[in-house]
Write a structure and sequence with these properties.
Chain lengths: ~140, ~500
């Protein structure tokens, strides 16, 4: 699991108020982590234009295009939770999970995030988490199963 | 049979553009075309005095069969299957002078299938680090072996088929039962043996006749553009999807450009349409016999323009009627066949799509998981995933999620469904995620975002397709688990 998702990649609460700001915020966390170059954030917008990354259950997973994989230095995932719902093409989003994946290094954690978010009880717990640290612990707990 | 048909069309359909490209080049640049260019059309000699190879010949002999082979191989066993299929088909192609479409249609899926079976032998037994080496060499050795086997197995067979068809036509001509010749000519044509029949058998006999009487009916047995035009017109009105939208352009290239090959894939996709072309051919020949009409010389290429240019004044009515009646007959029969086909296979698919569209609306209104069990159950049925009266036959072992890059959504969806299936206790179901471009046709169920489902359908025509608009919490996932309970009952923990 290691450094794909660390506490420093989690932001609670996020500052963004719009979809574009949220993509930028999730992307910036990946840039700050040294996982991607700033060009990757542009690719995230590119990707969003083709098909929305809204996944359901208050979750969106902005990520780059297949062509932008060169801009990824290592696999990483960022998580931003918002206090106010963000309008994601008409859907409500409270969690933006930024993804940079190469060589499937991110699939394990992404799969776990998916399973957490597919369960509305778990989503409620994530919403109730009082800090980034608590959110991190909740997401980490999945790994123990 | 239905599945065989969709498989054939899956091999040919994606390559229709290449047939059209070849048709355009051929119609324009061959020696008899409006802009003859030796280097492109493949006639005459270049500056060094060597014969021009041209684009036309190599494209039909190599490129088109190999494209079909690649697609066929890919459908059976992914990119690996495609590579092996192309190499193996190459052996078949050089085994004879005829364009080798029959060989490609048979050899490509076979080669990919063989590769798949052989890979299974040592699946999971390769020492880590040696996978690349073993995979490349095993595919290389198998492909080489199949190419050699194809060379020796297919060449004589296809040559024999071509010869037998030629002899058959010859015999029918000798015995004066010309209309019956269509039964041999039309199938031979769509297997791209048209030139073997026309130039190998009919033209020499026709030239003799024409020398004696000034004209010969034999020049029109194969070159009559009527039956093919009928097929394409039927597709224009009663076809579906891409076949329907490309048929008009194909009809122009066929009828005015005289490139009959352009309609062959349309028949190969639905071989039953041969009934239409055979009947059209018979009516066309019958008309010529009644009117005692024929051509002065071979019409090459077989366009309406070339045909009329070779028509002597006295035969004009007979030749025109023959083309028109042949086209009308073929059109009528093919239309009925296409319509029947649409009713049988199409209604279900269309109904499912409609249901899916309905479901999309419903669930966006219903919001997340607020639906009660019962509502979910209703929704499932509305979504057309569960057909209680029509359970699928076999158990489901491979489910694949596909999205654009295979990086995000499909991975998450696959995890969610994998988890649900695991919780339900099924151990014999494999859930994977891939980029949509890497889909193969050996999967039982394919889950895609509703925007991508049509594309996924063309990639894997024989799989069951499920559309979702919400990867995290689609009611379709529960539908799939429900379906597993029926289809994979023996995989449940109680019996394992």
């Amino acid at each position: 699991m290691s450094d794909v998702l660390t506490l420093s990649h989690i932001k609670v609460p996020g500052e963004a108020r719009s979809k574009d700001e949220a993509i930028r915020e999730a992307g910036q966390l990946l840039v700050d982590a040294g996982a991607v170059s700033p060009a990757y954030v542009d690719a995230m917008f590119e990707r969003e234009k083709s098909v929305s990354t809204y996944m359901g259950n208050l979750l969106a997973i902005p990520h780059g295009t297949n062509e932008a994989k060169d801009a990824i230095a290592r696999s990483a995932i960022s998580v931003v939770r918002y206090d106010e719902p963000i309008d994601w093409n008409g859907n409500e989003v409270r969690f933006a999970v930024g993804i940079a994946g190469v060589e499937n290094g991110h699939l394990e954690i992404l799969g776990k995030i998916a399973i957490v978010f597919s369960d509305t009880d778990e989503v409620d717990k994530l919403l109730a988490a009082r800090s980034a640290d608590e959110l991190y612990q909740l997401l980490q707990a999945v790994n123990e199963d | 049979m239905q599945k065989f048909g969709t498989f054939l069309s899956g091999m040919i359909m994606p390559n229709i553009a290449a047939f059209i490209a070849w048709g355009i080049i051929t119609a324009l640049f061959i020696a008899d075309g409006p802009f003859p260019v030796g280097g492109l059309g493949g006639f005459g000699e270049n500056d060094a005095g060597e014969p021009n190879i041209g684009l036309v010949g190599p494209m039909i002999r190599f490129m088109l069969p190999l494209l079909i082979a690649a697609q066929g191989g890919r459908m059976v066993y992914g990119v690996r299957g495609a590579v092996v299929a192309v190499v193996a088909t190459m052996g078949v192609i050089v085994s004879t002078d005829q364009p080798m479409f029959l060989g490609a249609l048979i050899m490509a899926p076979l080669a990919a299938w063989v590769m798949k079976q052989i890979d299974k032998l040592w699946d999971g037994k390769i020492k880590p680090g040696f996978e690349m080496l073993v995979n490349n060499f095993s595919a290389g050795i198998v492909a080489a072996g199949l190419a050699v086997a194809g060379f020796f197995a297919f060449g004589p067979v296809v040559d024999a088929v071509a010869r037998a068809l030629g002899n058959g036509v010859d015999w029918l001509v000798d015995n004066g039962v010309l209309p019956v010749a269509s039964i041999l000519i039309e199938p031979a044509k769509v297997l791209f043996l048209n030139n073997a029949i026309n130039h190998g058998v009919l033209t020499p006999l026709g030239v003799q006749q024409a020398a004696e009487t000034g004209q010969s009916i034999l020049f029109l047995l194969e070159a009559n553009p009527g039956p093919g035009l009928g097929v394409l017109l039927a597709y224009m009105l009663f076809g579906r999807g891409m076949a329907r939208s490309t048929a008009p352009a194909a009809a122009v290239i066929h009828f005015f450009g005289g490139i009959h090959e352009i309609y062959f894939p349309f028949v190969l996709m639905k071989p039953i349409l041969l009934l239409g072309t055979i009947a059209g051919g018979m009516v066309g020949i019958g008309t010529l016999v009644i009117f005692d009409a024929g051509l002065r010389a071979p019409a090459a290429p077989g366009s309406i323009i070339a045909v009329l240019a070779q028509t002597p004044g006295g035969s004009f009515v007979g030749v025109v009627l023959s083309v028109v009646l042949a086209a009308a007959t073929s059109f009528l029969i093919c239309s009925v066949l296409l319509k029947l086909d649409r009713k049988r296979g199409g209604d279900l698919a269309e109904a499912t799509a409609e249901m899916e569209a309905m479901k999309g609306k419903q669930s966006s209104v219903a919001g997340y998981l607020s639906a009660t069990e019962e509502a979910v159950e209703d929704e499932l049925e509305a979504a057309g995933v569960v057909h209680p009266e029509q359970p699928r036959r076999g158990p489901i072992h491979r489910i694949v999620f596909a999205c654009d890059a295979g990086m995000g959504s499909s991975a998450m969806g696959a995890s969610v469904l994998r988890n649900k299936i695991k919780k339900a206790g099924f151990t014999d179901v494999d859930v994977q995620n891939v980029a949509i471009a890497n889909l193969t046709d050996d999967v039982d169920v394919i889950v895609t975002h509703q925007d991508l489902t049509p594309r996924a359908r063309t990639m894997s025509p024989s799989a069951q397709h499920v559309s979702v608009d919400n990867f995290m919490n689609s009611p379709q996932y529960d539908a799939i688990v429900e379906e597993l309970k029926r289809t994979n009952a023996q995989g449940a923990p109680s019996s394992r």
